[in-house]
Every structure is written in C-alpha cells, then in structure tokens.
Amino acid sequence: MLRIGFVGAGNIAQALAKGFIAAGLTKGEAIIASDPHPESLKKFEKLGAQTLNSNIAVMNQSEVVFLAVKPNIVPLVLSDIKSFVRRDKHLILSAAMGVTLTSIEQMLPPRTKVMRIMPNTPVIVRNGVCVYVCGSAVKEEDEIITRRLLESVGTCDRVPESIMDAVTALSGSGPAYVYTVIEALADGAVRMGIQRDMAYRLATQTVLGAARMVQETKLHPGQLKDKVTSSAGTTAEGLYHIEKHGVRAALIGAIEAATLKSQEINKKFA
C-alpha cells in the first residue's frame, strides 16, 4: 500500500485522496496531509488521514508526495522541504498551476524525481481528466506508479509540457464551464414551466448522456448534433439561437482566456 502525502489539503488534494481510497489503492491511515488551514485538515481527518502543520513530517512519512498548493506558495514550500527530499525514496507530483518542471527541479536537489500533473475535480467521483509530464530524473517505474494512481480516478494521458497551459484551460477549468451550462439549461427549463429540481435532474442527465454518446460512439460531435436536428424542428431553432448569441464563440474564447492566464502565471516562475 502506497504511503501518500499531500502538501496542501485544498479541494484538489481532497478530491484525489477520496478517489484513491474509493479505488482501493490506499487507505485513509496511509495518507498524511499538511496545511495551514484547520478547515481543510478536518476534511482529511474525516477520511481517516493523519493531519498536521508540518510539511517536513509529510516528507518523512511518505513515498509519493503531491504538491497541491497555489503557484505563489510553491517556492516557500520547496524551500521548506528541500533538505528532506530523498532521491531514492520520494516521487513528487506537482499539481501547481503554471509552475514548470524546470522551475521546480531548480528549487530541489539535483536528480529529484518530479512530475507535473493536472487533474480536475471530478476525480472525486473517479471521472476526472488527468494529464502528466515527466521530469528529467523520472524512471519508468515512477511513471507506472503515477499512471496507476491517476487512472484509478479517471482518464490519464502523458502530454508534452508545451500544452499544459491549454490543458489547464480545458480540463482543469472546464468543469466550471459545464456547471454553468447545466445551470443555464435548467434556468431555461424553469422559465418554461419545469420544476427546479426536475430541471436540474434533466439538464444534468442530458449533459452526461451526450458526453457518453461522444465517448462511446467515437462519432464527431457535429455528426451527433446533426442526428438530433430535424428540418425546421425545435433543435434547429434552439441551435440558431445559440449561434445568434455567440455561445460557441464564448466557449472558444474562454479556453483562450484561461490559457493566456495560465501562461501569465507560468512566466512568473520561468
């Protein structure tokens, strides 16, 4: 059983920990987390995990260490743990947005095994999207461990670091866009007379079902859209309204804006 540590116990750390436990890869008592915020630690304690305020204790008691802190905190955390990193023991997985592998490796002892990961919050229900980039000292067995962990909570792909900002914008931020779409669909249904609880239920299942259709049929989304759209029908009218009001352009723009923001953060640590 892997001993897993979390430096930072916020939302993404909690989601990963819950996912790993649900997948049977570890147990709560094999997890240790550090964070300065008591409310975050309480959520880890409910999982049966050990919690404390010491990043150093996390290093001493863990083999795989998730760095799950805000980008601006990364230098402080790495300075704190640097002297306690053991190259023969530790695999460090950084989920810090916009902080490059080169930057992290430069702040740690030479040949430290570091990987950069980008999971999204649906890992908590084991339907997340995860990608990773291997650092210069990572070996095949380290990659196998990382894939085993991330695949237990969703899909997992190795990607070049050059697209990490775009991945952050798409799958990292993407759930928020989808939640907004579900909320808007439900609001529209309520406006047309459907009760609120049913509107959310129908909108949620519609999005889930449509996504599964794309995933399982392997058809282009445009093909599936055309199969639903009858001549002069309700779907055609709704699609016309969507195009008229630039919904597609807004979503495309959201990916661009979020990518540029990630790149901006990236430059601060270059």
Brief write-up:
With 270 residues, the protein is an alpha/beta fold. Helices cover 53% and strands 14% of the residues.
Mean pLDDT comes to 94
Number of helices: 12
Q: Main sheet, how many strands, which sense, barrel?
A: 8 strands, mixed
SSE succession: EHEHEHEHEHEEHEHHHHHH
Q: Which class do the helix and strand fractions yield? A: alpha/beta
* Low-confidence residue ranges: none
CATH uppermost class of the largest domain:
Alpha Beta
Number of strands: 8
Please report the distance between the alpha carbons of the first and last residues. 36 Å
What is the CATH topology descriptor of the largest domain?
Rossmann fold
Return the domain count: 2
Cα Rg? 21 Å
Q: What's the overall geometry?
A: elongated
What is the architecture of the largest domain at the second tier of CATH? 3-Layer(aba) Sandwich
Helix content: 40-55%
Report what the structure shows.
InterPro entries: 6-PGluconate_DH-like_C_sf, NAD(P)-bd_dom_sf, P5C_Rdtase_cat_N, P5CR_dimer, Pyrroline-COOH_reductase. Its main location: cytoplasm. One of its GO terms (biological process) is L-proline biosynthetic process. This is Pyrroline-5-carboxylate reductase. The protein is an alpha/beta fold and 270 residues long. It has two domains: 4-162, NAD(P)-binding Rossmann-like Domain (Rossmann fold, 3-Layer(aba) Sandwich), CATH 3.40.50; 174-266, ProC C-terminal domain-like (ProC C-terminal domain-like fold). The chain has twelve helices and eight strands. It has an eight-stranded mixed beta sheet, with helices on both faces. The longest helix has 22 residues, at 196-217.
